Each structure stands twice: as structure tokens, then as C-alpha cells.
Amino acid sequence: MGGTKIFVLRIKDVIRIAAVVIIGLIALGVLAFFFIPRGESRVQPPAIQPSGALYIPGTYTASIILNDRPIDILVTVTEYEIIAVEMTEMYESQRLLFPLFEPMMARVSDDVLFYQRADIVIHNDFPVTTGILQQAVVAALDQAMMP
Prior knowledge:
three-stranded antiparallel sheet, single chain, 2 domains, 4 helices, Sufe protein. Chain: A, alpha+beta, elongated
């Protein structure tokens, strides 16, 4: 009774099982890709205290015209740092026609405050919107620069 057991496998069954296993592994990989958080690694810039002031303290504005109405980008600075980057309230028609401006402004604001400069590369899916906002922040900071 303890003899050798022989299994007969058809090649069609082996191929079918291998295909199911491969599809299952691909599905697990895709799920892992979508659900595992991929936070951006930010390296804190070194704290440099310059010998002279960088900015004239105050709040400076630059305007963007959307749907024939201006939106002001406000940049508040002290002598050595950028302390706030904000956008004035959008009109309802602007908010409907340009829904990405408010979330992208939050992203630009966070990055400018983190890196303490406006000429940074911000990677996202909306480079045109981000670029327009960055240009306005740069224009406001140009007003604040020490001569």
C-alpha cells in the first residue's frame, strides 16, 4: 500500500494555473501601488541667517486675471523669511470655471513656505495652473526684495 503515486497533469491545466497565478500577482502589485502611501520625502533646507535683510517687511500683491476679474496673490514677508502666501477670495464664477486654483494655491503656498523661495519645481498633474500661481508669487516677492 505504500507504493508510488503518479499524478497526471495536462499541460492545459498547468498553463491555466500559471496564468491565474500571474494575474493574481499583477493584481496584488497594482493594489499595493495604489494603496501604499508614497509620501514625498522633503529635505529640510538649511537654516541660513544672512548678514543683511533679504526682504522689506510687509505684504505684497500680484494679480491674476481670471474670467475678466482679478485675483490677488498676497505674499507676507519679514526681513529674513516668507511667512504667508495666500490668495484672495475667488468669485463663484471663477471657482466654477477654474476649480484647480484653490487646491493648487495651497500646494504652492506650502512649498514656498517650506523652501523659503518661489523658484522651485513643483511636481503635480497641473503644471499650467501651478506655473501661473508661481509666477504671481515670484512677482510679489520681486516687489519685496531689498534693492
